[in-house]
Design a protein that fits this description.
By secondary structure, the protein is of the alpha/beta class. The chain has a domain at 46-107 and 118-179: Rossmann fold (3-Layer(aba) Sandwich), CATH 3.40.50. It contains eight helices and four strands; from the N terminus they run H-H-H-E-H-E-H-H-E-H-E-H. A four-stranded parallel β-sheet has the order 2-1-3-4, covered by helices on one side. The N and C termini lie far apart (46 Å).
Length: 180
């Protein structure tokens, strides 16, 4: 007998969040932040590129296309993650990778909302991200975010025929000599 406990738990969370308006622990605050600022911690969306002020990065809005779209994720708001982002940028530049970031256009993947049972917020963020991705030409999406949600990755992959993209998490990238 197979017990589908994960599906049952997700359904219970969805019921509590959407029908009862009850979210466990700080979940309600996280969902409010996602609704207001498009990121779970409530940071000003305009500060998403502050970590890169001295990096001279190309922004998709300005260049319209690049071989690699670097999906920065919410690491842009975390001091420890910012060091990782800077190091990864340094590696990509040293390797001569043609890359750009979305900058202020990048939103949270919505995975936290989905996990908390708020499918409406997840769908809203996913649709907005896909609309943004659809405006630009790139061959691959690379991220340092090991937690980039499977749901977000699947959404982007489903959009891949139009965006001509694929996702690579840098933590699973093969050595640079074979991945670029």
């Amino acid at each position: 007998m197979m017990i589908e406990h994960v599906d049952a738990i997700v359904d219970m969370r969805r019921f509590l969040t959407l029908e009862k308006g009850s979210t466990p622990n700080k979940g309600a605050e996280v969902l409010d932040n996602l609704i207001v600022t498009d990121n779970p911690n409530g940071f000003n969306p305009r500060s998403r590129t502050n970590w890169a002020a001295d990096q001279n990065l190309r922004i998709m809005k300005e260049v319209k296309q690049a071989d690699v779209l670097f999906w920065v994720s919410d690491g842009a708001f975390d001091m420890r993650s910012q060091r990782i982002l800077r190091a990864f940028v340094k590696i990509m530049k040293a390797a001569g990778v043609d890359f750009a970031i979305l900058g202020d256009e990048e939103l949270d993947s919505g995975d936290v909302a989905r996990r908390l049972g708020d499918d409406a917020t997840f769908q809203r963020l996913a649709k907005r991200n896909l609309a943004t991705l659809g405006k630009y030409r790139f061959n691959r999406i690379v991220t340092t975010d090991r937690t980039l949600s499977t749901a977000c990755a699947t959404s982007i992959r489903n959009f891949a025929p139009r965006a001509r993209s694929r996702i690579t998490r840098c933590c699973t990238i093969p050595p640079l000599s074979t991945s670029w």
